[in-house]
Write a structure and sequence with these properties.
The chain is mainly β. It has 1 helix and 29 strands. About 5% of the residues lie in helices and about 45% in strands. It is globular and about 50 Å long.
Amino acid sequence: MPKYAVMLRLSLFLLSLFSVRFVNAQTIELLSSGSKASLRGLSVVDDQIIWASGSAGTVLKSIDGGMSWKKIAVTGFEKTDFRDIEAFDENNAVIMGIDSPGVILKTNDGGQEWKLVYRNDTKGIFLDAMEFLSPTKAVVIGDPIGGQFFMAVSEDGGEHWREENQINRPIADTGEACFASSGTNIRRLSGNSYVFISGGLHSKMFNKNKSYKLPIIQGMESTGANSIAVKNKKCLLIVGGDFNQKDSANQNCFFTIDGGKKWKSPLIGPGGYRSCVEYLGKEHWITCGLNGVDWTIDGGNTFVPISKTGFHVCRKAKKGNAVYFAGGNGKIGKFIN
């Protein structure tokens, strides 16, 4: 056996031993949300205030770190699938419904009343994710219409929205779209700039007027990049795969340290299709999917499995250190480190 192969096997063996010891310190604590909805929207304001959203018009809120949850009615939208949510505190939040029609609603009183701030009845409209670049400026990305990705922006904290001019909408290849899997396929890069990713027959990352072809698996409607997380404008990590093959780890995770010009795959990657990734600080990232949760403490080179419980989305507190998860059948989890 060649010397380099022996060294590689030895390295992988040592990493596996490290992983077994290391994983014992981390776990996911399951919490009771009282809901049966499929939850894909999650916004963690701080270590106590958490909002979640999902199918069948579901909006949930906790103000005690997930120990108890309140189901919030959104009158008139009981059948809407709210795939993304952005919360600012206990009282102010914005939710996004994906299609038929595509809608955005906002509450200023903790969810007692909701104001419809945007509605789009265009045939084929499908909103995928929403990102607030600042307390006032926000962007919504949607699947292509007429060969261009749909985009809408707000300049006043989500109170009003305008559709982006077609000249500013990136062109999509045939069979290319976005996944509304976790509300994280668009992320703030720096200042008011952002990046977003696509999937399907083609998978790319878009940054202003530039696009970068991704090395992630692609070529089918179920493949491609699902989520991107940002450490800084040069260091980013993407996850995805094939959601029809939840246990396949083939070309499902890559990271870049030069803003997307070159991408590197982990030595040991996540253990299957992943719908969300979140940057936690230092060299720590965490990712989740249908068959479990993995995390890395070395910048994405080595991922360690910490749970076999599946989730759609994971988010870190904007003001704090808590990390929460949400998934199918009303599932809520908390990262215990």
